[in-house]
Amino acid sequence: MFVARNIRSAQRYCIFFLVRCDASSEACHHVSEKSLRADEEKQEKEKRMQLEAEEEIKKMRKQMIPHARRMPFFDLPFKPHRSTKSLTVPRSTKFQTLKSKKTIAPSTIQE
């Protein structure tokens, strides 16, 4: 009988250990699935952002219209002319002094 009790108690511990192992493995599996889903969502978001950026670039290219410009005259050299406006004369700065209300004379202060 003594041996049977030890076997029963050992089986209980063994069963409890197996239950804990199962729960732990389920938790690990759940965490790994959650991280995989987060990675997939992140990749999908990056793909969407990239596609949106490419579409925006395509729209911008369609909106850009090249404008023709006149060709410069290479026969006639560029000769700048002196301006007819008068030269600007620098002026000195004018600082405004603030008038204080009343100043207290040092002789009127009593110690």
Automatic annotation (TrEMBL):
The keyword Cytoplasm applies. Its main location: cytoplasm. Residues 30-88 form the TPX2 C-terminal domain. It comes from the Eukaryota. It holds the Pfam family TPX2. The keyword Acetylation does not apply. Keywords: Cytoplasm, Cytoskeleton, Microtubule. It is found in: Cytoplasm, Cytoskeleton. Transmembrane segments: none annotated. One of its GO terms (cellular component) is microtubule. Belongs to the TPX2 family. This is TPX2 C-terminal domain-containing protein. It comes from Riccia fluitans.
